[in-house]
Design goal:
By secondary structure, this protein is an all-alpha fold. It has 17 helices and no strands.
């Protein structure tokens, strides 16, 4: 396959997945903002969203003070923000158009219709009327695109590069999503000691409802609430939320599950197991396969996720060098 064709397919999937995950990130903040909380805590939540997305300086240069409405418009409608939903879906459609001959009719029409419908909805004010419903629509279109791709594309290199883009982007965004929530609770999260767990019952009861709604919000943002209940059959504990979204290979949006897909798809497009991207991805997957959440929390969750994001970016750069950059 030509490198430039692989590059367009890879980035088409990455941008579609990025739009979905931006919607998920905004949705969890929007839903959390509806809960009883102080103005300071709400402000920290929106600022954390921009910081983790590395967009805080860009936002402040354009809009100044952080307000929920401005942040959502910046992340949804601002065409000068390369990570906004409109920018991502436009880029996905343009990459699809560049390799129209490598796609099935169903895949192309899904991408094109998503772009046309997005413009109609934004012009009609549907985002302002119901942000939650708009975010659900973005997620649905991403699900549809992914399902049509798997259901109609030949299982060749084109599909594998598309899957690579999807799961590399998902790993990056899931890590950022987890970091946003845990970073909002404290500067870093090291788990709870036994003395903290066995603290005063009155304090626990007082905070139980608050914690439930906040932790269930992040689980719902990655479609993991029902999965958590099925796996743990217990009240929601932060340590278990972290374990589910990082180490559980059977959780579709976990970091471990994403790395499994990345490694498997690199193997499908290359017979050389000594290449840098395969080595890096395989090493990171092995650490997650044999890791324990207690070990991760001992050094701080924020520190771990920051390092994970750096390593995922290195894997992406290696894939680009070895497969996507034309010789």
């Amino acid at each position: 396959m030509l490198s430039r064709t692989a590059d367009h397919l890879f980035w088409m999937s990455r941008y579609t997945e990025r739009a979905e995950n931006t919607a998920r990130l905004l949705d969890v903040n929007y839903q959390t903002s509806l809960l009883p909380q102080s103005a300071e805590v709400a402000q920290m939540g929106w600022q954390g969203l921009l910081s983790i997305s590395e967009l805080l300086p860009s936002y402040q240069a354009r809009h100044g003070d952080i307000t929920p409405q401005r942040v959502m418009e910046f992340m949804v409608k601002d065409e000068n923000n390369p990570s906004s939903i409109i920018s991502c879906l436009r880029a996905a459609r343009e990459n699809a158009r560049a390799v129209r001959g490598s796609l099935t009719t169903e895949v192309w029409e899904t991408q094109n219709q998503t772009w046309l419908e997005l413009n109609r909805m934004l012009k009609g004010g549907e985002f302002e009327r119901d942000p939650g419903q708009f975010f659900e629509w973005v997620k649905f279109r991403s699900h549809l695109s992914r399902g049509v791709t798997v259901g109609t594309m030949l299982m060749d290199e084109a599909l594998h590069f598309m899957r690579l883009g999807t799961f590399l982007e998902r790993a990056d965004n899931t890590a950022r999503l987890v970091d946003v929530k845990f970073h909002a609770v404290a500067h870093d999260f090291f788990g709870q000691s036994q003395s903290q767990i066995s603290g005063e019952a009155q304090t626990q009861v007082k905070e139980q409802d608050h914690d439930f709604y906040h932790w269930s919000a992040i689980l719902r943002s990655v479609s993991g609430f029902e999965i958590y209940r099925k796996v743990y059959r217990d009240v929601i504990h932060p340590e278990r939320v972290a374990e589910l979204l990082i180490l559980r290979a059977d959780m579709p949006r976990s970091l471990h599950a994403c790395l499994n897909e990345v490694v498997n798809n690199i193997a499908m497009v290359s017979d050389d197991r000594a290449i840098d991207s395969y080595r890096r991805a395989g090493k990171l997957r092995a650490e997650m396969e044999f890791g324990r959440i207690e070990e991760i929390l001992a050094n701080g969750l924020h520190a771990y996720l920051t390092q994970f994001l750096d390593r995922v970016n290195e894997i992406g750069a290696s894939i680009s060098r070895e497969f996507l950059v034309p010789n």
